[in-house]
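Researcher: Here's the sequence for the chain we discussed earlier.
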Amino acid sequence: MKIEISAPGKTVLHGEHAVVYGKAAVAVSISLRTYLILDSHDEDKVLLTLKNLNVQKEWDLNDLNNFSHFNAGGDIMQADEESIKHITDAFELNSSTTENESEKLAIITFLFLCIHISKCYNAGSFAPCVVHVDSELTVGSGMGSSASFSVCLATALLISCGRITPRLLPEDKELINKWAFQAEKIFHGKPSGIDNSICTYGGALLFENGLVADTLPEMQNINVLLVNTRVSRNTKALVAAVKQKKEVFPSIIDPVFESINAISKQCWNLLKNTISAVNEEEMAVLENLINMNHHLLNSLGAGHPKLNHIHDIAESYHCASKLTGAGGGGSAIILLPIKNTEEKSSIIDSLKKDLQNCDFDIWDIFAGTPGVQVKFQ
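Model: Thanks. This is the structure I predict for it:
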């Protein structure tokens, strides 16, 4: 049996960092996706290829089946420090067997989901297989590459264990999302849950108090450029730095979070109540919200000189821009004019050229694309 899974990346319109503390955030799925193929294997081995990270690994089936640390409570194994450390030590992932942190975390996540999903739903027996992963998402850029990977892998394993159906019913997606959230803990320490949720469900969503509060199956016609600074950043470290600033300056940082929360709510209400395409008056509101939030995130220490450079370039073309994701590098989004006249097309072309001349990667993206999808080969 060969299963092919795909899941979208994401961009956060509003709510970065504040969402970790229960505030509202607005996220949308994007047209760039991760693709995973799980195929059966003749030998008693599990093989993993991560094309983006140039990783090829294999493990004997007995080593996985004999893994002893297992304390599942209910339907989900928690990715706490103890369980992560046990996998890291058992498979010697603290040594030079991994070349960088991204590679190490991806392998730990793969092993965590493989071992514990099989033990939860397949009587501890893991079937030999080959897993190949390729992605259009850049690692460490704020596009949700880790969440997209986690959603793909959890989906493939849950289907192969017979725990969910390939039709991906609502209850199936709920379980996928729960496992992907545990995987996100391995990558990011204390994730909000927004990335795995949008990569699972697709479309657009309002996330609040650790839960999906509202959804939009389809987005209105909003054109966005996604711009990658090519500056890698560590989400876990950035979240920790904001937390430390909040602990030292609570009377200053808490109002910043409240302001970001208000921006998220106003953006969501506008999107939710827009019946047809966004008009110029609504676009002006969205632009103001984008620009205000960019500066609020800078005040939290989430900015970067290159993100500010993107913002300045966009502003010179009368376009709104902000960082998206954890900041500290990664990516920015630029809101483009709603009317695609010949004059505005020329302006956008010039904007793109200026960004490319600064060595930024850019993508024209579709927002609100479908969530996780399954097909059999």
